[in-house]
Inverse folding.
């Protein structure tokens, strides 16, 4: 096995060594993510208003739906990533996942009850679960180790541009149409375009098939190296500190944005995320990744503190912007660390475990946040998230050991 493919930190270039160029597949996968996120975030920005406003769901129910949706995605990712390793193919599962998400988009405006919204949301996240780990594994397959941090940051940045455009489109549609259900129909268009781009322009490398070993047992995750599990420990703690963004939308509507402008919370968060993710990935290829993760955790602590202990629209949006900065310095970085720590033949499995753990933590975090909001108050759920973030930061500060390349 090539040692560079199993190193736990991205190797730095030698002096005068030219850096390789970014693979075309990374850009195309980023464009597919952009289009899909326009669709998903347009719907995501409006669903809390449909649930809490039109259908009469409680905040606790919103937390349950958000948590179950993400947990469904993460559980499926565990098996989809493993399956992509056993098949030696990534693209069929990626197409299936994006296609299923596109097919579910018409269900949201048609839903007439909380149960139907929950079912549609679960199917949508099922598609996300099927595509997530194979897509990340394919990106790692085609990217040189020297560029992995930047590649994941670039894909995340393009993905988040879609997360900016989606809520902006939701705001425009609400101002134009004034009806949540009518606006939700427009989520279908970019979802279908994303699937077409994926089918036509993403090509799996031939060497991917040649490098696959015979099928491994489903317990192969136990053979993943210690460096991988160290990253997973951080993923679990961060997942408990960060609940679903649906809470930000509902709180924004109460902090002076109103229903029509509530999606601005996602737009601000995603703008900061999109602008900072690629530079954060570039830094991840050059600096100590543990220190960059500390920056991410401190940004989340600051975001929770600002939102919990201040009032008014401007302070709320500042907290949301800090939340986006946290995402920029954590999501692509953690993906790059997973890609470096996992052997090539277990890369899909590794990303499956990664997404399973993060999603399971997200379910628990959303349930805790929903309960705190309903029984104590909105500020309490952000104080609780901040305390989890402080615990994660202290663990990283006191216990983190920079993995040694092997």
């Amino acid at each position: 096995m090539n040692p560079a493919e199993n190193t736990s930190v991205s190797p730095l270039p030698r002096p005068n060594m030219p850096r390789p160029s970014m693979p075309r597949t990374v850009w195309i996968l980023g464009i597919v993510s952009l289009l899909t996120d326009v669709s998903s975030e347009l719907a995501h920005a409006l669903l809390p208003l449909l649930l809490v406003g039109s259908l009469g769901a409680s905040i606790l129910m919103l937390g349950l739906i958000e948590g179950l949706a993400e947990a469904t995605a993460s559980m499926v990712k565990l098996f989809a990533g493993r399956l992509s390793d056993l098949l030696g193919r990534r693209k069929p599962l990626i197409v299936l996942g994006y296609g299923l998400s596109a097919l579910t988009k018409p269900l949201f405006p048609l839903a007439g009850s909380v149960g139907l919204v929950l079912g549609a949301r679960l199917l949508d996240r099922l598609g996300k679960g099927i595509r997530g780990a194979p897509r990340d594994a394919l990106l790692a397959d085609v990217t040189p180790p020297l560029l992995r941090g930047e590649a994941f940051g670039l894909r995340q940045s393009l993905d988040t541009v879609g997360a900016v455009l989606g809520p902006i489109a939701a705001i425009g549609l609400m101002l134009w149409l004034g009806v949540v259900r009518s606006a939700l129909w427009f989520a279908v268009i970019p979802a279908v375009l994303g699937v077409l781009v994926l089918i036509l322009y993403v090509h799996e490398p031939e060497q991917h098939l040649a490098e696959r070993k015979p099928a491994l047992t489903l317990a192969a995750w136990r053979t993943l190296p210690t460096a991988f599990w160290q990253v997973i420990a951080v993923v679990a703690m961060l997942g408990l500190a960060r609940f679903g963004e649906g809470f930000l939308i509902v709180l924004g509507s109460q902090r002076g944005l109103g229903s029509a402008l509530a999606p601005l919370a996602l737009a601000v968060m995603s703008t900061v995320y999109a602008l900072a993710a690629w530079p954060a990935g570039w830094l991840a290829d050059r600096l100590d990744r543990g220190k960059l993760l500390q920056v991410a955790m401190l940004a989340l602590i600051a975001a929770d503190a600002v939102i919990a202990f201040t009032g008014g629209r401007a302070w709320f949006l500042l907290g949301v912007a800090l939340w986006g900065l946290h995402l920029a310095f954590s999501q692509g970085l953690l993906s790059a660390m997973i890609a470096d720590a996992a052997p090539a033949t277990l890369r899909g499995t590794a990303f499956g475990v990664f997404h399973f753990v993060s999603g399971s933590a997200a379910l628990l975090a959303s349930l805790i946040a929903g309960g705190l909001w309903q029984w104590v108050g909105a500020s309490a759920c952000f104080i609780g998230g901040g305390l989890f973030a402080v615990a994660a930061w202290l663990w990283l500060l006191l216990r983190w050991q920079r993995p040694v390349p092997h």
